[in-house]
Amino acid sequence: MIVRVTKYPDAITDLETFANYSYTESSRSAKTYAKYEYQYKHEYGGIPTIWIENVLRNKSVTIQTDNFPAHLEFNVYMGEAGIKGKGGYYAGDFYSGPGGTFFVTIAIPSQLKGEAKIAIRTESTEKGYFSYNWFYNKTAN
After folding, report:
1. How far apart are alpha carbons 123 and 130 in whole angstroms?
2. Are residue 128 and residue 90 in the same domain, yes or no?
3. Is the pTM of this model over 0.70?
4. Is the pLDDT of residue 8 over 90?
5. Residue 66 covered by a domain
6. Terminal alpha carbon distance of the chain
7. Which of 17, 37, 42, 140 yields a CA-CA distance of 20 to 30 A from 25?
8. What's the pLDDT at 47?
9. pLDDT tens digits, residue range 81-116?
């Protein structure tokens, strides 16, 4: 599952368009594009994603990050699948260190034990980065 993360809610959000760094006047305003261009050239401009690496039923999930921004704190939330992890239970936090790709194991909140599918969401405590995915709550790797 591909996960979308953007620093600016009104920035280009179509993954294919974003990944190819293309732009069409009909789909986005020049102001939004200029904001995206500034972000890409002057700040971190990647698309952080999370992938499900391993699950231990009712105990924990290990995620692999990719393209995460450096030196930020992230909170992790879990909730029912289908809502992108919004409004989920707080499950823990982590520091992105140098950023990029790394693994994080998070305990599944007791309120979700026994659920068949669980959504997981990471949110930076500053700068507005977030990512989400979901997994089957069964032991697998």
Report:
1. 4
2. yes
3. no
4. no
5. yes
6. 16
7. 42
8. 84
9. 988 889 999 999 999 999 999 999 999 999 999 999
Q: Give bridge partners of residue 75 from the DSSP assignment.
A: 93, 123
3-state secondary structure the chain: CCCCCCCCCCCCCCHHHHHCCCCCCCCCCHHHHHHHHHHHHHCCCCCCEEEEEEEECCCEEEEEEECECCCCEEEEEEEECCCCCCCCEEEEEEECCCCECCEEEEECCHHHCCCCEEEEEEEECCCCCEEEEEEECCCEC
> Which domain range does residue 69 map to?
49-136
Same domain, 7 and 31: yes
pLDDT at 44: 58
For residues 4 and 65, membership in a common domain is answered with: no
Higher pLDDT, 46 or 108: 108
Asked if residue 141 belongs to a domain, the reply is no
Tell me how far apart the alpha carbons of residues 132 and 78 are, in angstroms, rounded to a whole number.
9
Are 37 and 8 in the same domain?
Answer: yes
